[in-house]
Amino acid sequence: MSRFEDLSIGDVVDGEVSGVVPFGTFVRFADGVDGLLHGVTGLEVGAAVTVRVLDKDAERRRASLALA
User: Fold this and answer.
1) Are 21 and 43 in contact, with CB atoms under 8 Å apart?
2) Is 41 left (phi over 0), alpha (psi -120 to 50) or beta?
3) Where are the membrane-spanning stretches (predicted)?
4) Is the pLDDT at 1 greater than 60, yes or no?
5) Where do runs of H (alpha helix) occur along 1-68?
6) Which fold would CATH assign to domain 4-67?
7) Burial of 42 (0-12, 13-18, 19+ CB in 10 A)
8) CB–CB of 14/49 below 8 Å?
């Protein structure tokens, strides 16, 4: 997994599904940081996924993601 600080918008990274909620799926992809795949709910916890970083909030250590 990548370091959160090294990620840029547009990067494609591998991660693991860490949670599924009604509004989307959380993916752990960097240094224990979870990003949100908004609107994606068909994945299972523990599944390996490849995601693209759409937005990054360095102060809150959060990211918006899309399936790559």
Assistant:
1) no
2) alpha
3) none
4) no
5) none
6) OB fold (Dihydrolipoamide Acetyltransferase, E2P) (2.40.50)
7) exposed
8) yes
The domain limits of the chain are 4-67
- By CB atoms closer than 10 A (0-12, 13-18, 19+), residue 28 is middle
Amino acid at 59: E
List 16's β-bridge partners, or say none: 28, 48
Both tokens of 16, joined, read 């693991």
The residues that bridge with 34 in the sheet, in sequence order, are: 28
28-66 pLDDT, tens digit each: 987 778 899 999 888 999 999 999 999 999 888 889 999
Q: Which amino acid is at 12?
A: V
Helix (H) or strand (E) holding 32: none
As a whole number of angstroms, the distance between CA 23 and CA 10 comes to 22
